[in-house]
Records
---
Amino acid sequence: MRIGELADATGVSRRLLRYYEDQGLLHPARLANGYREYSDADATAVRHIRALLTAGLPTATIAQLLPCVHDENGRMVPSSCPTTIARLRQEQSRITGAITRLRTAQQALDSILATALHRLGPLPANPAPPRA
DNA sequence: ATTCTCACA
DNA sequence: TGTGAGAA
């Protein structure tokens, strides 16, 4: 299938499918005219890619893990091999750490703002949301 | 319709 | 991580 068909089949834009190839996530064959030719397995792969991105994994990591995953009636199942599980646990702890750092930043900012508001007293209006 | 590259959020 | 535009 060509890129437009895969885009329609997966709901992922053609642009993004080319990007995934650039990131080493997909390896479509090439027709004589240079057009990409995707297999049916690629459609499944795209769903797995989406699932792993949603789980917060970077594309470089997904490129490594994708071959270590298979599909079981529409469900992504990671291989039980120890290195695969270890990699997923590693990502899990990375995200946990990130959440902790964000919580710390949130509390610090809450505290700074609370101090400012305490000194200024009650204010009439809200500040505009940060743009940049 | 598809390819690639440059630039940008 | 993901997109738009422009040229081929």
---
Amino acid sequence: MNLRRHDKPKATMRDVAWEAGVAQSTVSHYLNKTATVTPETKRKIREAIKKMDYRPNMVARNLKTRGSSILPLFVPDITNPFYSELAKGVADAARRKGFDLVLYDTGYQRNREGDYIEMALRQQAGGLVIGYNLLDERLWDRLEQTSTPAILIDVYPPNDLWSSVVVDNEEGIRIAVDYLSRLGHHDIAYLSEPPYLLPLIKRQREFIRVMKERGFEVRREWILVEKQQVNRVKIGFTLGKELLSSPLRPTAVITSSDLVAIGALNAFLSSGIKVPSEISLVGFDDIILASYVHPSLTTIRQPKFDMGQRSVEILMKLMSASDQETPVVEIIPPQLIERHSCAGVR
Amino acid sequence: MNLRRHDKPKATMRDVAWEAGVAQSTVSHYLNKTATVTPETKRKIREAIKKMDYRPNMVARNLKTRGSSILPLFVPDITNPFYSELAKGVADAARRKGFDLVLYDTGYQRNREGDYIEMALRQQAGGLVIGYNLLDERLWDRLEQTSTPAILIDVYPPNDLWSSVVVDNEEGIRIAVDYLSRLGHHDIAYLSEPPYLLPLIKRQREFIRVMKERGFEVRREWILVEKQQVNRVKIGFTLGKELLSSPLRPTAVITSSDLVAIGALNAFLSSGIKVPSEISLVGFDDIILASYVHPSLTTIRQPKFDMGQRSVEILMKLMSASDQETPVVEIIPPQLIERHSCAGVR
DNA sequence: TAATTTTATGCATACGTTTTCATGGTGGGA
DNA sequence: TCCCACCATGAAAACGTATGCATAAAATTA
């Protein structure tokens, strides 16, 4: 009854073949270049395709080839700029390989992780990109049983079965300390969110180690580590205030992440402490925000976009390998991004 | 040769049926509750499923039912916090309806838009969520021809064929002006990114209209609209500086978006102008960043998460409607989020 | 107990492709 | 002229599921 839309039934390959006066398999051969076909028939097929507005049905194709053109990405919170940049890199590389990125945002909810992995497998995903350390450790076993390859990002693999892409966390901290040191700082504090993940633990350990190695004193009251909260900016704010209440004030601060740094920055500014003239600040990650705050944040960059891309490349290799490849752990070098939150000590 | 992984072939419904000693169709009926089945057979099937570690193949299912369990979302840049929050809302609602969110990030590239829509259709997507105004207008016709329903977000539909979800832009501006007015401001400037989209045009027009209506003077040099650049924070910075160079300085500023506001904030701070004591600032959108800068930004909130959710609901209705529904344009009320970038005029 | 309805299960086909293999036609070398 | 290699096309069988329909068994009624 409604004339506005005709609702043509979708054309199938059979329709195209009929229109072109050839067999359905010939059309398939033409599309997939899986057999030679005469220029003349090519022409007819092309025209038929155009005329019928034919569009290959990927679902049927995937069923037949037992493949899948989706690439699942697991993140805890796409709203976190770290993960959205990562997602962009993964999506970009996936696209280039002909995959569609499907987003699984678990919201840090343990039970969702298992459900979402299940969904991904039902979609016949041939591999997974896991962008953070899953909360539910039992999933590693379950995943291993399905023999579905996966690549972890920013995670040190829980055992020697998994591949991953991580930034060189120790090197990042070294770069930060040495940079501040070159500016004349040696009274340096370290503020961290709860170090429940290996990357954070490594950063903290390396901070202490390198400070000692450089001959700088490390004071307990300058190593402030949050135990409870989850909101990183609030953590930074709290810890920043706490640091200011200490009788001795450092001349510089390194944080475990940019979000913590931004919180600390707000703490300092709201206490009337000038950054960077009174206190210097170095973050970690280089999320977009870092360049937006005032003063803009000097930070240790994790090349998230590149890490996303690289992870897809590795995963593709794992997926196409007939045999079990030996897992790789790829270490990406971090990079100092100099902006305006650091100054020389007077 | 490799003993570490057995690579069991995936169990199919047939395998389960065989194991349980029933017919494949019975298993299907059991799983889909499409026929009554004896408790005893249920038990056998359940056990077989567990034993074989069976997992339904969605690809086959989708082929058979000519459906699709994916929901494509188009955004220009997932890295932009506005879109990542939107994506979260869409993903959440989609999940609840049993759909997987696949992310199409066009990177503001015209030619990608068409390609990605093509990919989405090949995946047999039954509907699209389009999170921004497509650059390539020809796509509207093409989309209309395929008779695939779509829902637009933050976009006024190009014609009366499409449904959309938009915030009440005029109301948002009114709220901002009236809020500042209550604080005693009447010298208010407006800074805007290039108004190439209807929402931005509306905001600007409404600003002028409501200022006049309230009896406030609108000065040409206080309405600063960028023409060239794309980076919104830079735009804000440039415009902010430009505003300061004007002989008369307003006591308050409204911007077209939070990112512009943050740029302007940086411009003010770096010129030694105190915010909010010397100048008040109101943004638009309420992206997460708004609460992270110092001082935190008072802004007009677009409920992005809710808008994402609502759009999925509407789209689902469109998709299940056998007949062509009459398109709906849903207007969402904005909301004032009071933070610390505004002060009463002394 | 026979007739009838209800309940539980299975058979067979189709969804839109890919892919193996067979077949008829074409041309070149001897 | 005959044989063989090659080339272009097609026929047919899957891939793993949903579903209409038939059927056998059980339950109900008379």
